[in-house]
Specification:
Elements (H helix, E strand, L loop, with lengths): L5 H24 L3 H29 L9 H33 L3 H32 L1
């Protein structure tokens, strides 16, 4: 597999996960539980696929330093990147927990933790795309 295309693929996977996260939220607010379930499982699938591709890319291609020279842009980029990394690490066990709670039918616990997990997961997905744009497209 050509690693040069993987950053763009990863951004597309993140964007797709973002779409399913938004749709899942939309459906649960309308009590469309099956549609919510399908969207959230799709978001999990695309986020998992992203993680696999991301690890593969960094194992084979290393990292790419940020080339933006403007000090303000650098502060913005590294602030977004740091929050993205910290929350991406945090989100994995939270997603696994809420998935487990949903599968075993413990919807009260699922709901309580999902209220915190969903916005963090959405933030990680969106900032993943922003990091890609800033690192590979804008600077």
């Amino acid at each position: 597999m050509d690693t040069a295309t993987l950053p763009a693929v990863n951004a597309c996977l993140n964007l797709t996960a973002t779409f399913f996260l938004a749709a899942g939220y939309f459906y649960i607010r309308r009590h469309r539980h099956q549609a919510h379930r399908n969207c959230m499982l799709s978001a999990t699938f695309f986020s998992s696929l992203f993680l696999i591709c991301y690890l593969y890319y960094h194992f084979h291609a290393g990292h790419r330093p940020f080339s933006g020279q403007n000090p303000t842009i650098r502060i913005i980029y590294f602030s977004i990147l740091l929050s993205h990394i910290v929350l991406a690490i945090t989100i994995v066990p939270l997603v696994l927990f809420i998935l487990y709670q949903a599968f075993v039918g413990n919807f009260d616990r699922h709901r309580r933790v999902a209220r915190w997990t969903w916005p963090l997961w959405m933030y990680v997905s969106v900032t993943g795309v922003i990091v890609y744009l800033m690192l590979y497209q804008l600077f």
